[in-house]
Amino acid sequence: MANLNLGTEAASIPSQMKSSVLNCISLSDPDVEKSVALLKQACLDSGFFYIVDHGIPQDFMDEVFAQSKKFFDLSIDEKMKLLRNEKNRGYTPTLDEILDRDNQVDGDYKEGYYIGVEVPADDPQAEKPFYGPNLWPPEDLLPGWRQTMEKYHKEALRVARAVARIIALALELDGDFFDKPEMLGEPIATLRLLHYEGVNQTRGKMSNPSKGIFGAGAHSDYGLITLLATDDVVGLQICKDKDAQPQIWEYIEPLKGGFIVNLGDMLERWSNCKFRSTLHRVVTDGRERYSIAYFVEPSHDCIVECLPSCKSEETPPKFPPISCSAYLSQRYKDTHADLSTYTEHKA
Question: Looking at the domain assignment, is residue 15 inside a domain?
């Protein structure tokens, strides 16, 4: 796939850094073998690819971004009333998350909002981690906000399931492998709205890798796949070889109307490292940046273990089996601030 012409504003990539060329997969292409081949090569190469023709109208995508901005434009007092809870639903303030403790001097210079699968508080499932009711801004404060986000959540899950079917085929599995109830039949699917600050009067630009300041520190995602929609401001970078010294970082260019998709750690475990969960980070250039991430993990009780098609006598499993819930709980604990530090805001 050739480099995309995304406009002068989006393409303002620093001259000393290159952009990564990603495979582009159309969900409307009737040639399934072509899609499988493109995806498999992307999973072996970088773990990142574009998805287009996914069926979500551009005007609706624009509305989701507009509603996201309306929330982040609220006062900090209003946003803190919706501070994330122990189920990881709700608002995450700037510096709440630190993804790269070895290289960051503070946390991530971004704020976010978690929205999961809606599970009523009186449902027995709500007793499990990551299951429960969402936190929603008052309707009179942000009219139609909840309805927009719930619709987007359902649409993004539809797209994720379509992508997972191609991944299954690329792993020499039945196309419906990930459709099982213990996987994406009852997933832990989380929508996260993200806002990266622009230039701050006291802190300057919100990214300076040489000083350990990042919009989002280097990390790999936790689950199966992530669907990322972005505005036209560059910032996402990937490192294809995490063990290289020095690490080489490449920008991923935004693609209007499409998703940037990357693989998560669970898929790397399932595939015995055949498919890659790649390090990535966000380095902003002083402009505000908005993105919408959709993290797709299997169900709470799903056991993630090496797939039969990915192991042999020469390549035995590299990881022990682990439940999705246990893995996610530890990763969130490692990267988010303890909620007790916000006691004064909850009074």
Answer: no
